[in-house]
Amino acid sequence: MATPPRPRLSAYQRAKRVIDRRLSLLGRGVSSPLEAEEIELAPVPTGAVCPAPVNTSMVPADFTRTYQDVFTEVTPNFRQVVYHLRDVNVAWHGTVLKGLRVFVPSLPQDYFELEFGGSFLMRQLSSRRVPALLDGPVGLAFDSWSGNYFHWIAEVLPRLVLLRRVQPDCVVLLPGPRPPEYITRTVSALGFTRTHVIGDGELVRVHDLWMPARPGRHGFMVPELTKEVHDAVISSLQSHLDPSRRATRRLYVSRNRQQWRHLTNEDEVLAVLARYGFETIYFEDMNFVEQVRTMYEASIFIGIHGANMTNLLFMTPGTHALEMLSETYINPSYMCMAAAIGVHYSLVPSKLGSPPNVEHNYADITADPALVDQALRAICGAPE
């Protein structure tokens, strides 16, 4: 099924944006920014190098140029920082606020201040009694994007790595109302035993808050933090993993059960994969432990860009990951993730598979079966 265009904003949504912007500007004018102690754990790296696909000869120049330009822009954000704040409120989506101001580093992007500093802020201040958590250090590492599997694994977990370096015994705030297994399992894997769930629509008052900044941006991640996440999760699940099956399977993950970003010519691609002995998997059928075990057993993993590719983080170093990526949405996330843990990443440049009115982040992809075959032949040799 083709991905439909996303609906246009309603009149109410457009009006709310205008109101939010004006209220946010008013709040900035009458309230001072939140004060926070800034603790630097690591400076901007001096020798950071932009990763690249192993099959660079197949990659159009536009991809390579985009990767390098964004990497150059993002490198200053590899600085590792933890903020220490006192007597603040934390909302159910991880936004930190006090008085008429939002703490901007708690937002996924700076421009969100105009939204979360508007009617949301006024509504919370006027209508809710905020309960206070018990005294002691409290950690916050999620934001309003963290309900997405990719953003939790790729962005929240590296922040928790930073948090455990300064406050390993703190209470960790979790998004509610019922955190899924991948959240509880990964928080435990990183050594945190005490948590507090913030329910939908709730605020909590925190006297002593520790909040790691999101290291990296735009798909580029700090390699050592990403590897530390990999090692912690794999170590925590050793009892569920069979060493005899490590890196023994060739896997294709399908997105045809997802709401958007489908492979339009999946049958043609599957015909190519069949010649190389691939099996098709659906992560929707698996719990978190099963997903990690499946990737531990993968020797070659291929899929199209999307959250399904996130699980390559749990592959074995020295294995191979291939991503079918549209030339209209060049995103380095999985290339960077693979490089951090020693997985060989190849790119299959693909075409836009949706009409132009479908937002590119959600658009379908059409892959050239010949390019898929070329990429696999370089890894596997000629099929039998």
Automatic annotation (TrEMBL):
One of its GO terms (molecular function) is glycosyltransferase activity. It comes from the Bacteria. Pfam families: Glyco_transf_61 (PF04577). Residues 149-320 form the Glycosyltransferase 61 catalytic domain. The keyword Transferase applies. The keyword Cytoplasm does not apply. Keywords: Glycoprotein, Glycosyltransferase, Transferase. This is Glycosyltransferase family 61 protein.
